[in-house]
Amino acid sequence: MDWIAWSLLLLSTAFAATTHLLRPAKKPTPARVLLTISSLGLAITAAVLASIAWHQGSGGNLPLVLVVIASVAFAVGSGSPYTELVFHLAANQQAKRATTPSAESPLRGGLWIGLLERTAIVSTLWASWPEGIAIVLAIKGLGRFSELKNHKAAEQFILGTFSSALCACAAYGIGLLLVG
């Protein structure tokens, strides 16, 4: 069952990574949303199967290197679409209350920062050094400090950081279940 969960995790990563091949738009296209939700469903299924295998004591049949590679790939490849979906949901909530249309995002370079952030977080967790998360987030905060005076930028920073870090931690958690 753990091989099936591992395969589903890789398939989820592939679905999420495919969203990067679609043309980016200010609003997520239906195809991007469908791929992101499908990826999320596959990841949840992988987590459930890995959890079942772990509880039955039948987990741990996978080589550690394959599990680490799959969890890092999942964290890096899946975090951006999930974060975009969170931004879209938050923007919809704000649009219902706002009287003026929202402007373009005040933060630049978020995709690359997020990729590096998730890679660093999941790597520090696999290295059994969870304190590294604090260092990664502190560096990110210092790098964006001057831009965070803008309320919209601060809100986007917090949403992006939380969703990105949660994706990296979830990737590590699924990996732990697969290792047994």
Helix content: over 70%
**Total count of strands:** 0
Overall pLDDT? 86
How is the main sheet built?
none
Number of helices: 6
Structural class: mainly alpha
| Radius of gyration over C-alpha positions, nearest whole angstrom | 17 Å
Distance between the termini: 12 Å
Our estimate of the beta-strand percent is under 5%
Write out key terms for the chains shown:
180 residues; mainly alpha; 6 helices
Short account of what is shown:
The protein has 180 residues and is an all-alpha fold.
Question: Describe it for me?
Answer:
This protein is mostly helical and about 180 residues long. The chain has one domain. Helix content is about 75%, strand content about 0%. It contains 6 helices and no strands. α1 packs antiparallel against α2, α3 crosses α4 and α3 packs antiparallel against α6. The radius of gyration is 17 Å and the shape is globular. The termini are close together. The model has no long low-confidence stretch (mean pLDDT about 85).
